Amino acid sequence: MSTENPKFKDFNFAEGELLLINKPYKWTSFDVVGKIRNSLKPLKLKVGHAGTLDPLATGLLIICTGKLTKQIDTFQAEEKEYTGTMILGATTPSFDMETEVDETFDISQISNEEIYAACSPFIGDIEQYPPAHSAVKVNGERLYVKARLGEEVELRKRFVSVPEFEITRIELPEIDFRVVCSKGTYIRSLISDFGKQLNNGAYLSKLTRTRSGNFLLKDAFEVLELVNYIRSKKEEAKTQAEV
């Protein structure tokens, strides 16, 4: 791999680096952290991420190394932007494609105008419940663990901010959208509530984080691109040490 790529530089991982990663589909956020941490061995460094992405989501994941991990909470608190696709006319227990459709609805009478208008109640400061299939902890246990065991859980309402929510394409049953939101917003819950606003059902079929604070997905590394670069630099250093 050429080191002339302007995205690459001489990293100082121990002092602290902020890495922008395009999280692959079906990878967990911890999978990405683990891959990067392993590539840095034998260095024993702290590596963490600022803002979890669900396994079925893709897009911008901020990774911090070394001393910069102390600033993770700061990065995590920043505004996020997402683009995605929902399926109108059906629901799933997880509000996305992790679980099978459990109910279907007639969408033949829903107009484009009604769909556009349904965004309005969700713009501004709103309240929502996290999905039962989520990483939120209740009494020290993740909700998704209880949900998969079929246990009932008490969902606690949370307050979030959604400055922007717009529909960008309608080709029923698919609807594309763009959302700008605060930390802690569950897009799956937003889409589920959007379906209810239409007296119907909806679930998330695709989601990509395009921005976190001032950091953009277009500037992100592919995971293996970065890992291969780190390994090549380690081999380079080893070769020079042996000369």
From TrEMBL:
The active site is at residue 54. GO terms for molecular function: RNA binding; tRNA pseudouridine(55) synthase activity. GO terms for biological process: mRNA pseudouridine synthesis; tRNA pseudouridine synthesis. InterPro entries: PsdUridine_synth_cat_dom_sf (IPR020103), PsdUridine_synth_N (IPR002501), tRNA_psdUridine_synth_TruB (IPR014780). It catalyses: uridine(55) in tRNA = pseudouridine(55) in tRNA. Its EC number is 5.4.99.25. Coiled coil: none annotated. Residues 46-187 form the Pseudouridine synthase II N-terminal domain. Responsible for synthesis of pseudouridine from uracil-55 in the psi GC loop of transfer RNAs. This is tRNA pseudouridine synthase B. The lineage of its organism: Bacteria, Pseudomonadati, Bacteroidota, Sphingobacteriia, Sphingobacteriales.
